[in-house]
Amino acid sequence: MPKISVIIPAYNDERYISRCLDSFICQTFSDMEIIVVDDGSTDSTPNILEDYCKKDSRIKIITQRNQKQGAARNNALKIASSDFIMFADSDDWVDLDYCEKAYNTIIKYDADIALTSAVRIKNNGKFKTYYDFKEEIFCDNFQDIIKIAKVPGYWQVWGKLFKKSLLDGIFFEEEVFYEDPEYLIKVLHKAKSLITVANSKYYYFSNPNSTIKSKHTIAKIQNQISSMEKVFAYAKTHSLELPPLQITKKKCLLSRVKIYTDRKEYYLFGIKFFTKNEPYNCEKVFLVFNTAFFGDVLLCNPLCQNIKAIYPDSKVVFVVNKPFYDAAKYQDCVDDVIIYDKKSKHKGFLGLLRFVREFKYKNIFASFITYKNLRNSLIAKLLGSQYVINPNENAQDISMQKRHCNMLSILTSKSIANFPMRCNISGDIFDELKKRLNLPDNYIVICAISKNPPKDMPIDTAIDLIKLINNTEYKPVLVGAGALSEKYAADLDSAGASYINTVGKTTIYELANVIKNAKCLVSVDTGTMHLGCAIQTPTIAVFYEQITLKPWSPNPEIYNSVIINKEQTPQNIFNAVKTKLI
Known about the structure:
The chain is of the alpha/beta class. Helices cover 34% and strands 24% of the residues. The strands form four sheets. Strands 1, 2, 3, 4, 5, 6, 7, 8, 9 and 10 form a ten-stranded mixed sheet that branches. It has a six-stranded parallel sheet with strand order 22-21-20-23-24-25, with helices on both faces. A five-stranded parallel sheet has the order 17-16-15-18-19. Strand 13 (263-268) and strand 14 form a beta hairpin. Helix 7 packs parallel to helix 8 (218-237), helix 10 packs parallel to helix 14 and helix 16 packs across helix 21 (570-581).
């Protein structure tokens, strides 16, 4: 068994990976394994790694899809066979006696961590010394450990040799750009001792094309802030005393604000003018705006679920048009619903200002304008939202559900999950509802009309479908609302169709209860079919026109649904119903 496992994540490092590997394979200390994780490189890095693997049997290669350094290090730790672990970045290098000095020192003091000197070198040759240890310094308490390791400030896991047992049960966060800080604070807290290594250097190359340095996007900035917030939360939970922890910096024209856990420092032309003592609030409030119809409101739910998955301590607040309050209220991962009453209380510009003035949430991190209009964007900006995010209107080739979810990708590098809509209807009013509407024990709901006539089910198709259902143990129940639905029901009555008519007799919440207790739903209206999918009722989605099919149809891979967009005959629709009843 080798004495040291060196773990090196690599992503598109064809220019520098050889320098890194050469510095390790030529070490005066040879009893090691070198685990290189190719993080989905698209350049010649995999070929270079393969050549090195053939030259030196100590080199092991793991290949993974691009998941960033956290996942790469976690996967390498799973197969590491040594009692000591060393991390390195693929564009860095070390002194030739680096491993020998680190190993001999950590063994000599039986320490949990050996910390070496480190130098940052820029592409132009300029350098900055991070650590410069001329002697061995032993620390055996947390405060001394973080002081000698310069934490907060220097959060890197490279430049250190760890006992592998110290790392057990601690994992890097994956799919983020800044995975080191939270990991390191947990390791340092767990460590009982640290020893510095005299006269041994790790060379950190400040590569302008590295994952961290290149494309300083909003997602990277937010990852960096989030990593500091997690350190802050961990320290607070475990009552750890840390020196002032800088959370973020904000630039505004010629000024800069440095935000710490306990204060804000205000600068002008680089000169600090004053300090404001103000505890940092790391709670994130997300606003999801959708003042369209209830189907589109439901399609925002996967976005809400993704927000909670990526920011579990956040608060998700839904801003919705008054008639569709229930469609937002019962969704998974929605903490609060705020009504925008555009026809009464919040009508016009004065009503908009009233809404803003009375809005109870003040610390708003991001607003998602899922139903894009000028009013919603203006409200978000007036509320002081740090980010106001609008949908990508060029993304016409993907579903509306996915389009809503993809808005979150601006803020995070983590994968956006394809969560199904979830609306939690308790069914507590169903007994009363069943009695009032004269509902049978076994029934199938039909929504044959929408607000757009080309999408409606032809009356003859509806009549024949009702007959087919009546020939089974199930009874057809017609749902809908508005004058067009009432006329449609009247035409069915004139044709002698036998069905239970609930048109115009239910609220959205009551309609949800009716659909929830149905054996199956047949719908041409996208809002109603989305409601059926959200409450997990088997749903037959019938499309008579193709324009709305791709953006609005429920995905059968995540919903118990069938899509019918051709040969929409009564028999074909009924056959689809039967597949869901068997």
